[in-house]
Amino acid sequence: MQFDNQFNYHISNLKILADYLYDVNSFKKEVSLISYILAYDDEILLAERGYFSISSEQVYIGFYNYLQNWILKSS
Fold first, then answer.
1. pTM higher than 0.85, yes or no?
2. Could you tell me what percentage of the chain is helix, strand and coil, using 3-state DSSP and rounding each to the nearest 5?
3. Mean pLDDT for the chain?
4. Within 10 A of 35 (CB to CB), how many other CB atoms are there?
5. Is 63 in contact with 44 (CB distance < 8 Å)?
């Protein structure tokens, strides 16, 4: 899977949102969302370059599922 040029833009927006949520909410007791976003961003890049046995699509699906669960848990 090749991510289009919008991928980095979306990751950047997610980082801004995660920082904002961290600052205004009581989620500080948990590992911050930004940590997960950065980790998944790195994993997607490494998977795209062939360093993992799974594809970047599989990593992205895991990232998407993590975000969905985080939102459900936080609401």
1. no
2. 75, 0, 25
3. 79
4. 12
5. yes
